[in-house]
């Protein structure tokens, strides 16, 4: 094997880790010599949902600007990952390739192929933890297994001190840069159609924006987090989910900024916030140990539950026309902003899977397509939690009632009024933005009469409970 020269560069393969600070792979490469930052639009990335691809494009724009301040470039390519990286290695004489680990099934399979092939070529190929506080395989139960319930998982990691974040490194530049596509060539936002410019009003991309949002939240908002985080009419959450999803901020950065505050007057509130960061960790813990959670019922006995596939009722749910104002407000918030309040993610999922008896995979697919903050672990676990088929699941008899949830968490109706134009004589800009963003083929206008409820809430609940009781009886009978 030919030994590369001392000035041979290392390719840093960026994926969903689009930042310079606390980037262990980038820091390792920079400590050894010149670096060539690369983003590859490969089939696995092209398969992501439209909104998340659009959000990646915004993050790439800010990453390019950050690299430019270091007089560096971001090389953009399209193609199968291994073939593209091999071409880049041949063009640049790179000594190796480094990247941050991803944990969903498609990414793990791709990365394993790439690592094995490059090593067989005599090229260094190394992956680093750039996405989690704790690698999934490092948290074990007393018997050496993995955790299936969140609370014991939290207790297991609460006292751990994750590695501290590292500063953005100084970058040495290669002697020459390889050719690059442009972000326009990648067309990451093409499938957003009319929705892209609308969603752009609600998204502020980049790691600088992420750090500023974290600082503002910890300074101003975290004190009221425990009692206000579920209020739909208040801006009481961190707003960091889309930054985390594309890696503009790392959980280690969040932990390092927040954890020291637990000993101060905001201690209990900060602990509540950190528990939500660890909920994300728990989702990845489960995704690693049970990768089937992305596509299959985590509890196999739910395979016999009589959920419906996609249907006309689900289409009305997607379009925010269920006749339940708080559900419709949430679905419209999603389409306009690319995000949805977490309380409403649970409620809309419960409504689809229980009141409308529609399979959680139908809803998961819609969220995957429309969320700018889509996360493979949190999305699949959240849907299965709400449906009752997943780990640490909500008991099936806990069926969220949209009317009572609306009264409790939107007591003055401001959230519903903000997003549902048909409920207002003079709708605001947010409600009207929905009609700017949706496909023309939907044929919806703000002057449409608001629909009657699709299903009687009491009857919908009873129907779901009857189906669950029948499933449980069959299960009990089979095990008798």
Largest sheet features = 5 strands, parallel
Helix content percent band: 40-55%
Using DSSP, what is the number of strands? Answer: 5
Counting helices, strands and paired strands, the structural category is: mainly alpha
Walk me through what this model shows.
This protein has 480 residues and is mostly helical. It folds into three domains: 1-130, Rossmann fold, CATH 3.40.50.620; 132-163 and 205-289, Serine Threonine Protein Phosphatase 5, Tetratricopeptide repeat; 300-479, DNA Cyclobutane Dipyrimidine Photolyase, subunit A, domain 3 (Orthogonal Bundle), CATH 1.10.579. It contains 22 helices and five strands. The protein has helices at 24-32, 43-46, 50-69, 81-92, 105-120, 150-158, 183-186, 195-200, 207-221, 225-228, 241-245, 251-258, 267-289, 312-318, 325-337, 342-355, 360-370, 376-387, 402-409, 414-419, 429-437, 457-479; strands at 10-14, 35-41, 75-78, 96-100, 124-128. Strand 1 (10-14), helix 1 and strand 2 (35-41) form a beta-alpha-beta unit. The longest helix has 23 residues, at 267-289. The model has no long low-confidence stretch (mean pLDDT 95).
Task: Supply database-style keywords.
Rossmann fold, Serine Threonine Protein Phosphatase 5, Tetratricopeptide repeat, DNA Cyclobutane Dipyrimidine Photolyase, subunit A, domain 3, 5-stranded parallel beta sheet, 22 helices, 5 strands
């Amino acid at each position: 094997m030919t030994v590369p020269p001392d000035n041979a560069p290392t390719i840093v393969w960026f994926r969903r880790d689009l930042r310079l600070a606390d980037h262990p792979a980038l820091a390792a490469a920079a400590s050894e010599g010149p670096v060539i930052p690369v983003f590859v639009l490969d089939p696995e990335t092209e398969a992501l949902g439209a909104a998340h691809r659009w959000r990646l494009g915004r993050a790439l724009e800010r990453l390019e600007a950050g690299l430019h301040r270091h007089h560096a470039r971001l090389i953009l390519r399209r193609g199968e990952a291994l073939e593209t990286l091999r071409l880049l290695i041949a063009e640049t004489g790179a000594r190796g390739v480094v990247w941050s680990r991803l944990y969903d099934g498609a990414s793990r399979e791709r990365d394993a192929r790439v690592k094995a092939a490059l090593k067989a070529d005599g090229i260094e190929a190394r992956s680093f933890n750039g996405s989690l506080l704790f690698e999934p395989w490092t948290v074990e139960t007393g018997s050496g297994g993995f955790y299936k319930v969140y609370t014991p998982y939290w207790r297991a990691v609460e006292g751990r001190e994750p590695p501290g974040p590292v500063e953005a490194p100084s970058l040495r530049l290669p002697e020459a840069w390889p050719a690059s596509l442009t972000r326009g060539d990648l067309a990451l936002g093409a499938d957003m159609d009319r929705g892209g410019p609308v969603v752009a009003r609600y998204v502020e991309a980049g790691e600088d924006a992420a750090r500023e949002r974290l600082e503002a939240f910890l300074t101003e908002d975290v004190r009221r987090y425990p009692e206000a985080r579920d209020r739909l009419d208040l801006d009481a959450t961190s707003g960091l989910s889309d930054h985390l999803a594309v890696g503009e901020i790392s959980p280690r950065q969040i932990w390092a900024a927040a954890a020291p505050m637990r000993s101060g007057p905001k201690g209990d509130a900060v602990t509540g916030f950190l528990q939500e960061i660890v909920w994300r960790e728990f989702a990845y813990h489960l995704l690693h140990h049970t990768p089937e959670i992305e596509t299959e019922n985590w509890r196999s006995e739910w395979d016999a539950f009589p959920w419906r596939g996609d249907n006309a009722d689900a289409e009305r749910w997607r379009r925010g026309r269920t006749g339940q104002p708080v559900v419709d407000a949430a679905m419209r918030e999603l389409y306009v902003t690319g995000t949805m309040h977490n309380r409403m993610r649970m409620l809309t999922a419960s409504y689809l899977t229980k009141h409308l008896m529609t399979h959680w995979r139908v809803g998961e697919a819609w969220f995957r397509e429309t969320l700018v903050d889509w996360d493979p672990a949190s999305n699949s676990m959240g849907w299965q939690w709400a449906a009752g088929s997943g780990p640490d699941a909500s008991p099936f008899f806990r069926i969220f009632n949209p009317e009572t949830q609306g009264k409790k968490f939107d007591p003055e109706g401001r959230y519903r009024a903000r997003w549902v134009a048909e409920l207002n004589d003079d709708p605001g800009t947010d409600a009207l933005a929905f009609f700017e963003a949706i496909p023309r083929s939907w044929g919806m206008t703000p002057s449409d009469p608001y629909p009657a409820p699709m299903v009687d809430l009491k009857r919908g609940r009873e129907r779901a409970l009857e189906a669950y009781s029948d499933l449980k009886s069959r299960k009990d009978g089979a095990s008798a």
